[in-house]
Amino acid sequence: MKTGNQQFMTEVVQGWGKLPEGKSFGYTHGIVVDQQDNVYVLHTGHENVTVFNQSGEYLRSWSAAGIADGAHGFYLHVEQGEEFLYLTDVNLGTVIKTTLKGEIVLQIQPPQLPDVYNEEKKYKPTDLAVAPNGDIYVTDGYGQHWIHRYSASGEYITSFGGTGNEPGKFKCPHGISVKLDGEEPQLYVADRGNFRIQVVDLEGNHIKFITNDMDMPCSFYFTGDYMLFPDLHSRVTVFDAKDDTLVAHLGEDQQAYKQQGWPNLAKDYYRDDRFSSPHGVCADSNGDVYVAEWISDGRVTKLRRV
Predict the structure, then answer these.
(1) Global confidence as pTM
(2) Amino acid 183: pLDDT
(3) Domain spans of the chain, in order of start
């Protein structure tokens, strides 16, 4: 089964990533790949990090400390040759950094901003990214729509954003990534509630909006000449990373998100080459694409480049 177009064609690897008997997913939210092309899936169930090899064979699973049924943001970053995982929990307000085996090396404390947060107005971190200088940017996508900046050691620096649709404001800044191939690094923010991508500099100053060819972008993954992002409304979108223009939609199903009960649809609705609620995406060294969907018992798909 193929999906894409002549510029970016893929085929479904059927049966990839099966769990062993006795193990199960919760909602699958984040997905990343390490330098060995092992694939890590973050979900809301027991042992919430699950690892497969490139062929889809189950390797191991573990529970991230401080990450529970609000497991959400998932990011892998290489620092001085060593790989680390960053994870968030939207319910507990947790942001942690771990080794690939799950040992915590840093816990980032919630921002102390009494004018922004209180008992009613919660902090709910959805994603994060790391700049070239090591600064960490955390998006409060499900809370008060701010982006918080920390040093590499977890010290709070500043915040920017807040609720709105004008330049520099956000409505569910759900995902964030650093684009490195320009003259200066830029932050790409999946401003999902505003149905757009907003690009800002590392100080949080607005650069531009991108509003074409997307429908509720969730997060980003840069690979080669492409920027991949899951559109929650039932497709994965591929942009040319140089000029932010459409290359392809993968697995598009414009009826899925309109179904009653979405995202948890009847099992006979799902098709291998169609997505319902893509939430996380990454790519391995071959350019093959991995997608995690926001479904109660999880769904992970591998698309091989052809």
Answers:
(1) 0.97
(2) 85
(3) 2-305
